[in-house]
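User: Can you help me understand a structure? I only have the sequence.
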Amino acid sequence: MKFKNPKNGEIYDVKDSCVDAGFCRDISCRTCPINLSKGWYTCADWVVNHPEEAAELVGYELIREGEDAGTTPISTENPTRAIAIDFDGTLFKTRWPEILSPNRGVIDRALEEQRNGAQLILWTCREGKLLEDALAACEREGLRFDAVNDSPEDWKRIWGTSPRKVGATEYWDDRAVNPNTWSAQENSNEACAATRAEKDEAQPDPSSRRGILLQATRCVCGDRDQDYGSPENSLSAIASLWADYIKAKYGVSAPLTGVDASAMMVLFKIARVATGHGKADNWVDAAGYAACGGEIEARKC
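Assistant: Let's start by predicting it. Here is the structure, written out as tokens:
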């Protein structure tokens, strides 16, 4: 039974083994729709006995008896569409080399392009174990690639070479710059400068110094006084309760103040950072508590 792969024009003649025929070369057994459908059959037996269903499941064309089994020539002017996609910052949010979370929109778009016939290339600087981690993360999102840091097979066959620059129709990268847009950008720079400045002022990068301090300011200077009372009153009350606990537990008098409570809350946040269980919010909270402690202490001067 013969099948044609429309992506690269290859022909697979399945007789005794799907693997030997190359039919499932680029498909993981764990996710292979044939393997999930075959029941007690061997994969090859199921394919031979259910050719139409097999072709539909894997996206191949069924070549019936008497049909031309030759490969379809691929035009050098219009090869199969290929998309080279960066991993860090594009497919996934990362803190090198840690993989944080998927960029769902990019992954969904890539899967849609793949369903529409495009070949996908993982285009990354990662190597070895780091590359394996990236591929595993993509696999968990249902994303499999036609090539990794390499041009698609049909592109290499067309051009007769595989240069270091991966051949593709499109390149998706969070750091990409398209020089064709420079002229339009330069013409609009002056008109947009004031707007960008206002936006940057209002919405700085939340991980920058200004962004962290702005978040801390919003936490301690917004409606917080109405919700929790003034920093002096609330932190002084916390200090008094801590002092009562220490007295009851250890029989030691500790004349704690709101300044002490502020300082220890800062240390509490720093401890979370030090043990690796903290989040970015800990830096915001630490800045807020430090500001409250400084204000309380200044009022006593």
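Now, to help you interpret it: Residues 2-63 form one domain. Strands lie at 2-4, 11-13, 61-63, 82-85, 92-95, 98-102, 119-122, 147-148, 170-172. Let me know which part you'd like to focus on.
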